Q: What sequence folds into this?
DNA sequence: AACACTGTTTCACTTATCGCAACACCCAAT
DNA sequence: ATTGGGTGTTGCGATAAGTGAAACAGTGTT
């Protein structure tokens, strides 16, 4: 039953390394920048980028001559997202939740040892959590991550908790035992909180989304700045949040059994 | 000044070919299916998929053993989309436009000789245009495409119109001269219509979005089934549509000069 | 049980890719 | 203008990386 480690290929690895150089902060990169960052020879880098360009995975700015990620990626991602009928089921509930809370709403699913945002509605306010589609965040210190951890298969959770848990802020819980207490809390209350555990000034609450088989497949969250997400406000948000999560779950065929 | 054709690489081409096999309709594929579709040897296909899996570009279903596109693509696409501050500027106007029209709203930008959806809000109705993020559509027979063509650099438009224009439906305009008349009409009225020119039963109206430099960089559209998008309804939609497009343009720094 | 089918892996071959080096280019400073 | 430090692209021979045939291991069907 041991999963055979998939065989890799040099070129695929290199492509991945190159593409991952591009971030929101550094979205336009030159050949040399990428070459240095990846350790690849500059001619190799140049040719790989050129080939990637041909396929639309990157684009080249006409003015600066720098490369950036291309729209073919959006095209492919669209296929992935379309498959998540979760997103479609969620749409209307997200809208109303966004309306009520005026904060940023996210849906995250598990992706390896992290969670990844597959749907985002941003708060209309100028100070807001800038949820980003496709963004990966850690599990142990985010509201969505805690939800996913709580309902995860025990052996998988065990494995993740045994990894070194990075302390992003002073509030980050890095002690597995305290985390287990938190999970029990999530189970009981039906929602998780991250109180500046991932980023200073950022508070979020999240609730699980179930599919028809009763598995937790995603987490729905409300994220905002600490000063707007005080305990009173959070208390107000909990019902709409859990309601929305429940409605979405029902859309997916989940039936409350008892 | 002649753009040198970018050099390609076999592996990159193959990767692209493989990834493009996956569609909404055929989202889960086995090695043999892909092998047949691409003409690649099955061992090659198997190894490439295995390597792509290692990088998260594809995933492998534990039950069926089939492959599907992976979340790393969403991750990368997120970076691309984040760069489009257009999407952020548009958000609130999209919401209200969706509210008013109850039809599917899209924002498309130019991508080579096609347009690509970078933002989609779906109609709440069950019969609706299923706009899909990242979906590519032709230019000459869609409302957004016509808008983009209308305001495109003349030589580029010339080139595209000189290509064979596929007749998707009986209504598709494939004659460059008639199309030019249509462009003049778009210029004058400030919006474009596609009346079942791309798909039977699908009608859409679109209006241009300008950036601070006064260039048309995107098109905003309302799409719905013919029976709901009759000429009266379309007339009602035009003002909200052009208003929204204008507001978004302003958000991007566009100033109406005269 | 034999069969048809899929997906993975081994292995010797060969070709696609690499890294060097040379080149072309841009700009800033002399 | 001339040099110099930087970038990005491209020939070329060497070679390592990827290939395809075939064998193997599963899975389900008749």
A:
């Amino acid at each position: 039953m041991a999963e055979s480690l998939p065989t890799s290929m040099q070129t695929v690895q290199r492509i991945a390394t190159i593409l991952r150089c591009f971030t929101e902060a550094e979205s336009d990169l030159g050949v040399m920048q990428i070459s240095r960052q990846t350790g690849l020879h500059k001619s190799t880098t140049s040719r790989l980028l050129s080939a990637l360009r041909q396929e639309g995975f990157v684009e080249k700015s006409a003015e600066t001559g720098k490369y950036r990620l291309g729209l073919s990626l959006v095209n492919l991602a669209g296929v992935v997202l379309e498959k998540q009928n979760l997103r479609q089921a969620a749409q209307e509930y997200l809208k109303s939740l966004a309306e009520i809370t005026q904060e940023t709403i996210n849906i995250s699913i598990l992706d390896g040892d992290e969670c990844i945002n597959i749907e985002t509605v941003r708060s209309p306010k100028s100070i807001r959590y800038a949820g980003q589609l496709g963004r990966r965040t850690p599990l142990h210190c985010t509201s969505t991550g805690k939800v996913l951890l709580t309902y995860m298969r025990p052996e998988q959770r065990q494995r993740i908790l045994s990894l070194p848990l990075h302390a992003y802020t002073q509030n980050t819980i890095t002690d597995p035992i305290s985390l287990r207490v938190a999970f029990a809390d999530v189970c009981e209350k039906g929602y998780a909180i991250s109180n500046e555990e991932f980023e200073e000034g950022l508070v979020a609450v999240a609730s699980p989304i179930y599919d028809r088989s009763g598995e937790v497949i995603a987490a729905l969250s409300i994220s905002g700045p600490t000063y707007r997400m005080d305990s009173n406000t959070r208390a107000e948000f909990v019902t709409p949040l859990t309601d929305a999560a429940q409605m979405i779950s029902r859309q997916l065929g989940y039936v409350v059994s008892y």
Observations:
- Residues 4, 7, 10-11, 41-44, 47 of chain A lie near DNA strand C (CB under 10 Å from a C1').
- The first strand of chain A starts at residue 58 and ends at 60.
